[in-house]
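Handover notes (outgoing to incoming on-call)

Open items:
1. Junctional adhesion molecule 3a: sequence verified, structure written out, both below. Nothing else pending on this one.
2. Nothing else urgent.
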Amino acid sequence: MRGCKMAIARLIACLVLYTSLGHIPSSLGVILRTTDKLVWANEFEPIELTCLIESISTNNPRIEWKKIKNGVPSYVYFQNKIAGDLEHRAQLREPANILIFNTTRSDTAEYRCEVAAIDDQRDFDEILISLAVRVKPVVPRCSVPESVTVGTSTELRCLENEGFPAPQYRWFHNNEELPQDPKNSPKFFNSSYSINPDTGGLKFRRVRKEDAGEYYCQAKNDAGHAQCPSQMMEVYDVDILGILLKIFGSVLIFVCLAACICHYLRRGCFHKKGHSENNYNWPARNDGVDYGDADEGHFRHKSSFII
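Junctional adhesion molecule 3a structure tokens:
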């Protein structure tokens, strides 16, 4: 008899303890759980967010779903019908799960399932679920130089900004994937390239003749992949384009100088306008004075005045 009283006292103490800590036995309140608090889904594919009622006494509990994005809540299931962003795109499934027919990137958010049971001692419970929607990459933008010179450095670029999560990048040369580390491949052991899979950059420290060919880039994440059209990169022993440009520039400068010289010659800008002995007009010698030669450098009197 004494042992029975002690057992009852322990049971009452446990109930008091559970009540004070907020843990009510399942028979006295509503309790929710979910199969996954972090859910991933591919864009345009269906996904189900689970809200399982483990225990409840109320026959018709009030069920609500809220979408929380950037800290702002909004109803997606309210008063027994789908609302808000999920209207015409979802349905409620027993007991309180919500099925989204075709998820979009805008559905990435937190979702809160709330159940109110007025006949239960613990009449309310909620559970929070995070939904992340994967987005397939679009065709990346690739930049491949048309021609490079042997021994020089160059970089090929690849960029895609639609995919979620952010894609990883891979490069292909003549339809063969380039290994991340060329030293791990006998075929590319002597290559000097390096690939950044996060940014999509393909850098060559010293270009070789063997590096010529077609290149394309692929962006890939868990939702899928996309690639840009292949582009040709030619490798020359000498910089033919640079030499041609220099020759053209030299010829252009020569033609301009020749045209300027001809122009000034036609205008007579280079004709020397000076005095010479042949075209100098000496004054008439009718005054009886012998002026002498111009080269003597002084005046000489050779005639006498007659009075």
